[in-house]
Amino acid sequence: MTGRRVIVVGTGLIGTSIALAARGRGAEVLLADRDPGALELAVELGAGDPLPAGAPDRRADVAVLAVPPAAVAVTLLDAQKRGLAAVYTDVASVKALPLEQAAALGCDLASFVGGHPLAGSERSGPSAARADLFLGRPWALCPPPAAAPEAVEAVAALARACGATPVEVEAAEHDRAVALVSHAPHVVSAAVAARLTGADDVALGLSGQGVRDVTRIAASDPRLWIGILSANSAPVADVLEAVATDLAVAASLLRDGSEEAAGHVADLLLRGNAGRSRIPGKHGGEAPAYATVQVVVPDRPGELAMIFQAVGIAQVNIEDVTIEHSPGRPLGLLEISVVPEEAERLAAELRARGWSVPG
Ligand SMILES: NC(=O)C1=CN([C@@H]2O[C@H](COP(=O)(O)OP(=O)(O)OC[C@H]3O[C@@H](n4cnc5c(N)ncnc54)[C@H](O)[C@@H]3O)[C@@H](O)[C@H]2O)C=CC1
Ligand SMILES: O=C(O)C(=O)Cc1ccc(O)cc1
Fold this sequence. Notes:
The structure is a single chain. The protein has 359 residues and is an alpha/beta fold. It folds into three domains: 5-169, Rossmann fold (3-Layer(aba) Sandwich), CATH 3.40.50; 175-277, 6-phosphogluconate dehydrogenase C-terminal like domain (6-phosphogluconate dehydrogenase C-terminal fold, Orthogonal Bundle), CATH 1.10.3660.10; 291-352, 2-Layer Sandwich (Alpha-Beta Plaits). Helices cover 47% and strands 17% of the residues. It has 13 helices and eleven strands. It has helices at residues 13-24, 36-44, 72-82, 96-105, 149-161, 171-195, 201-205, 209-215, 222-231, 233-256, 259-277, 303-313, 340-352; strands at residues 5-9, 28-32, 49-50, 60-65, 85-90, 112-117, 138-142, 165-168, 291-298, 320-324, 331-338. The strands form two sheets. The chain has an eight-stranded mixed β-sheet, sandwiched between helices. A three-stranded antiparallel β-sheet has the order 9-11-10. Helix 6 (171-195) crosses helix 10 and helix 10 runs antiparallel to helix 11. The model has no long low-confidence stretch (mean pLDDT 94). 3-(4-hydroxy-phenyl)pyruvic acid is lined by residues 93, 118-122, 182, 217. One of its GO terms (molecular function) is NAD+ binding. It catalyses: prephenate + NAD(+) = 3-(4-hydroxyphenyl)pyruvate + CO2 + NADH. Keywords: Amino-acid biosynthesis, Aromatic amino acid biosynthesis, NAD, Oxidoreductase, Tyrosine biosynthesis. Pfam families: PDH_C (PF20463), PDH_N (PF02153).
C-alpha cells in the first residue's frame, strides 16, 4: 500500500486495527473519531495522524468507516460531501440496512463497497487493536449493484493488505450467514452468562474453561451489540427460535430421565460434534493442528516472563497461548501451542528448568 492514502473514520477496535495493518504495509493513514480520547490513543499507538477538519489537501484512495452500523450511512454521506476519498467502505457487522439507509440519504453508491472483516474480539476501543487481527480471516465484500468494479478492487486490495481474504457476497445473504455464525451465537453466549449473575461463590469457584469459552463474547459492549442485533433482527430471530426449540426439547428429555430420552439428548450432542467440525480453520481449510504444552504456573510475580524466556531460549515459536487461572488459587495453567515437532523438546526443556509440565 506504499504511496496509498487511507482514511479511517472511527478509531475503535476495528478502525485502529485496519489503520495499524495499512500503515504496516506502507500506507499513509489519516484518522478521525468523534471521541477525541479514542483518536488521541490511536495516534499514540502509531495508527496514523489526525485527519485535519474540512476538505483534505489530497483525496484518499480509500476511506474506511469503522463506526457502529447505525452511524454508517450518515458518516458516508458526510465523508462523500467532504470529498474525503475516491472509494468508501465500512466494516459494520450488518450489511443490508446500512446500505438501504445510505441509498435513502442519497449517498453515491458507485464509490461505496460495504465490507465486513470476520475478525474481532469482545474488547472495544483502540487499546484492543492489533495489526494482525485480520490475518487469515475472511473479509466479506457486499458491493451494491451500482458499485464501480475499480471500487470493489480497491476495497479487496485493502482487505488483502490487512492479511485477510476478500469474499464477495450479496448483502442479504451475508446478513443471514452472520446471523447463524456470529449474531445468534452472541445472544446464546449472553443468555448462558446471564445465568451466572445469580450464581453463588461455590458455583463460580468451580468454573472451568468450558464456561469461559462459551461466555467469552458475552463480555462485549452491549451498546454496539444491540445496534448489530436490531439491524439484523429477523435472521437472528430465526436462528434463535431454532436453538430455543433444541434447548426446550433437551430440557424435557432430561426431565423424562429414561434411557430412550438420554439417547435423544445424545443425538443433539452428536449433531453438535458434526456442526462444530464443519467450522473451517483460520485459513478456510482445516484448523491448524498445533500441539499444546501445559505448564503449571505458580502465582508469583515474574513467573510467566521466565517461562516465556525459557521458551525463547529453547528456540521454540509460540503459535498461541491461553492461561486458565481461577481466582484465589495459588496456581494457574498455561497452555502453549507450538508446532507438533517442537512439543516434546519444549516440555523436556521446561521440566529441566523446574516447571511442572503434566503429561
Ligand atoms: N467488535 C468486533 O469484534 C467487530 C466489529 N465490527 C464492526 O466494526 C464497527 C466498529 O466496531 P468496533 O471497532 O468494535 O467498535 P468500537 O466501539 O471499538 O469503535 C467504534 C468507534 O467509532 C466511533 N464513532 C461512533 N460513531 C461515530 C461517528 N458518527 N463518527 C466518528 N466516529 C464514531 C466511536 O467513538 C468509537 O471510537 C461496527 O460497525 C461493528 O459492527 C466488525 C467486525 C468485528
Ligand atoms: O470475538 C470474536 O470471536 C468475534 O467473533 C468477534 C466479531 C464480532 C463481530 C463481528 O461482526 C465479527 C467478529
